[in-house]
Specification:
alpha/beta, Glutaredoxin, globular
């Protein structure tokens, strides 16, 4: 699990084919329910970078990404923002979301 910041966002997204980001806050009880799901699913995908953003600490990054509700899941594929959804998916739903994101082909030159 990687802690993502505004300073590390571009490099992380550019260097990895798939990046899944959990935007959360320490005071968010729903985020606390999602955290174990996110952590568990992360162990199933060796080729995906799983990152977290504490929105209290990274307010500029949350604003840049348009985060309005917590938790919010954001995904990048081949350097492009391809998915965002607020709420708490089940383990199965999160797994399906990631599998679908991994089918996105890289942009053609």
């Amino acid at each position: 699990m990687r802690k993502l910041t505004l300073a590390t966002l571009a490099e992380t997204v550019e260097q990895h084919a798939t990046v899944i980001v959990d935007f959360w806050a320490p005071w968010c009880t729903t985020c606390s329910r999602f955290s174990p799901i996110f952590t568990d699913v992360a162990t199933r995908f060796d080729d995906v970078v799983f990152a977290t953003v504490n929105t209290d600490e990274e307010q500029d990054l949350a604003a840049l990404m348009g985060i309005r509700s917590l938790p919010t899941l954001v995904a990048f594929r081949h350097g492009k923002h391809v998915f965002a959804k607020a709420g708490v998916p089940t383990r199965r739903e999160l797994t399906r979301i990631i599998e679908q994101i991994q089918t996105v082909e890289p942009p053609r030159p």
